[in-house]
Design a protein that fits this description.
15 strands; five-stranded mixed β-sheet; mainly beta; 170 residues
Length: 170
């Protein structure tokens, strides 16, 4: 099932809504409705989708309300303390509790099936987690999630000097 139901708080002042999103083929879909829920179709369960909702009344249109959503359990599987580090910094990436079984981690300097990995990349690196996730109806499926850790070069030979001043109020 490659659909998703999008629901939002209804405002009695709005007569209808226009919902815009791009489907699995990156084709923009425009849905005009007069209720506060819509079924989005033709979605890839592993993709993140951007959408916008515009409220309409008497031919007047609101500014779009925008957001992102995913139609699967396959996002947010990596618990990440940060996505940017300074060269030489060590961080731990952990599979979230949604991952029932870790299949493997893949990255330039790692390949393991442990729940957590400790990394210290020397340059910007993408890490991928493959794991088995169980949906609400009990179905198990293999999912993956990626994170790019950006690495900034460490500054060297920098000297900072400071002078103290007493400031008197008045």
């Amino acid at each position: 099932d490659n659909t998703m139901i999008l629901t939002w708080d209804k405002n009695k002042l709005h007569e209808s809504y226009q919902v815009v999103y791009k489907d699995i083929n990156k084709v923009e879909r425009v849905v005009l409705i007069n209720k506060n829920t819509v079924t989005l179709t033709d979605l890839d369960p592993n993709e993140l989708y951007q959408y916008s909702i515009v409220a309409v009344r008497n031919n007047l249109r609101s500014d779009p309300a925008t957001g992102e959503l995913t139609s699967s359990l396959c996002r947010g599987l990596i618990e990440r303390p940060t996505t940017r580090i300074v060269e030489g910094t060590t961080i731990t990436l952990t599979a979230s509790s949604f991952c029932r079984t870790v299949v493997n981690w893949i990255g330039d300097d790692v390949s393991t099936n442990q729940r957590s990995i400790v990394i210290s990349p020397s340059e910007t690196t993408t890490y991928e987690l493959n794991c088995i996730v169980e949906s609400k109806n009990g179905e198990a499926r293999t999912c993956n999630d990626k994170i790019e850790i950006k690495v900034d070069k460490k500054c060297t030979d920098v000297v900072a000097r400071a002078t103290t001043y007493d400031i008197t109020q008045g």
